[in-house]
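To: structure subgroup
Subject: Chain for Friday's discussion

All,

I'm putting the inputs and outputs inline so they're searchable in the archive.
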Amino acid sequence: MSPRTAPSTPTRVTGLVLVGVADAGAWSMIVEPNGFFCTEPSVVALSRGGEQVTFYLNENTSPAFTWAREGEVLVEFCPDYAASRTGSTPDALDEIVGELGFGDDLGHERTLALMERLTGVRVTP
């Protein structure tokens, strides 16, 4: 008697990205579980005519905050190392980053607070 084996599940690459979008006043909020599509340069370019803030968080890699306007990345940094920022105007958030107290173990919470300061939208559970 041979052991039973589970039938194999075919894998199909669809190229689809799952995102949830919600109206947040003058902003749209996109939540993208298990992905980083919204941090891709081609998607950041969609901020032309407006602004975009993103917070990429993955337990296996470094988190990343990005603030873009008119398709241009203004400020980008890892919340764990907020003093090391890149973008066309990396010092533009110096005052707010200082006020929020980046530099401790609360980088994720401080990033959400930064996003709230920039957008006026409070992210709650």
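Points worth raising on Friday:
Strands lie at 20-24, 27-31, 51-56, 64-69, 72-77.
The mean pLDDT is 84.

D.
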